[in-house]
């Protein structure tokens, strides 16, 4: 088993956590806030770190899931809090993600705003909010915000679940 790690930010970290916890090959998801080492990505924004078995799920597949399960083509006033990003842990991974994003752009009619950033720092969320969907599937937020994202997974990525 080759365990890799990658960071994803784009929407609410409760939603992002639930999406990645649903995938085969994902070993662990840490939910909180990530910043980058680059000036434009230095502020913390909601994100997750995904630990995955690369023999079961590829970085390409993980990135595809990420792009489909948040609004990766829309800039809005809350983008500082919900930066559309992939946080990488090495120069090689940075290049790979950049290539994946360029390839995935062909799937979308609007330009992707998702950027690849070098990982800087991570702050874990408080215990009561970890595994939010798993612990609270019937809460209105989960029904309204997370369930639709899980339905997207079933529609486009069923083989990864």
**Any idea what the CATH superfamily is called?**
Peptide methionine sulphoxide reductase MsrA
Low-confidence parts: none
Write out the strand line-up for the largest beta sheet, numbering strands in chain order.
1-3-2-5-4
Shape designation:
globular
> What's the CATH architecture name?
2-Layer Sandwich
Determine the structural class based on helices, strands and strand pairing: alpha+beta
Tally of structural domains = 1
**Secondary-structure element string:** EHEEHEHEHH
Please characterize this protein's 3D structure.
The protein has helices at 13-21, 59-68, 91-104, 132-135, 140-157, and strands spanning 3-9, 26-36, 45-53, 85-88, 115-124. The chain has 161 residues and is of the alpha+beta class. It has a single domain, classed as Peptide Methionine Sulfoxide Reductase, Chain A (2-Layer Sandwich). It has a five-stranded mixed β-barrel with strand order 1-3-2-5-4. Helix 3 (91-104) links the parallel strand 4 and strand 5 (115-124). Helix 1 (13-21) packs across helix 5 (140-157) and helix 2 packs across helix 3 (91-104). The chain is globular.
Write the layout of secondary structure elements.
Elements: E1 3-9, H1 13-21, E2 26-36, E3 45-53, H2 59-68, E4 85-88, H3 91-104, E5 115-124, H4 132-135, H5 140-157
Could you name the key traits of this structure?
single chain; globular; 161 residues; alpha+beta; 5 helices
